[in-house]
Amino acid sequence: MNPPVTTTATSPPAAQDITPSPVLAMLHTVPGLVPGMETLAAGTVPRLRVLHYVDESLLQDTIAAGTTPGHVRRRLVDYARYAEESGAQALLVSCSSIGEAATAAADFVSIPVLRIDTPMAELAILSGDTIGVLATLSATLGPTTRLVQDSATKQNKTPTIVARKVDGAFSALRAGDRMVHDSLVLAAFSELAAECDVVVLAQASMARVIEHARDQPGGPTVLASPDSGMTQLSTLFPAKNS
């Protein structure tokens, strides 16, 4: 299989530096995420070269099925193998809806296959006893909630997890009505914030909507996956002393 590939790289190292640049592959289901993810990754690991694979059908097929179908799981394995063969030291999957398929794909390659939301889930368990999970898609809400629960089990903790889907928000966004989407997300977030110590945003797109509500005195800790997800790279690509 030759997956559709968009390749972006940071500036090459200076001519006198013969140390190979570290290489990371990222798999996205939303093309618009590529520039922001590139910036975050480059800011985390100096001289990082990033290979971006973009496949919107992975998310579309998962939404249509209500879960990650078999053919999507098989294609995740293909992408992981392609990343490995391309010289990447890891594959980072930026879509939470297919995160469980990403975890399963790791069994078929020798490089790490990372979920963008794993550090967020681990941090959520450390940040409070009542954790809200907010999503606009059932296909995302389920995997993210299970990831938070798995993180709690690994840390021997038993938090209360409140999972909530924002009905109508995704349909509004798909129809181009961002105002309705944002209004529904903000209302759902406000309700969940009143009940929880921590609110986990299952989709990074929601962070923009509630940005002004974050870090309010007396409010919950609000977590989104992109920033925390990049912390995994520091372990995989430790800085080398010059």
Detail the topology: elements first, then pairings:
Elements: E1 5-9, E2 23-28, H1 34-44, E3 49-54, H2 56-65, H3 70-85, E4 91-93, H4 99-105, E5 113-115, H5 118-127, E6 130-135, H6 138-154, E7 160-165, H7 169-174, H8 178-193, E8 198-201, E9 221-223, H9 225-229, H10 231-236
Parallel strand pairs: 2-3, 2-4, 4-5, 6-7, 6-8, 8-9
Antiparallel strand pairs: 1-3
Helix pairs in contact: 3-4, 5-6
- Radius of gyration in whole Å, from Cα? 18 Å
Q: Percent helix among the residues?
A: 40-55%
Largest sheet, strands/sense/barrel: 5 strands, mixed
Average pLDDT rating? 88
Can you count the beta strands?
9
Tell me the series of helices and strands, N- to C-terminal: EEHEHHEHEHEHEHHEEHH
**Percent of sequence in beta strands:** 15-25%
Q: How would you describe the shape?
A: globular
Structural class: alpha/beta
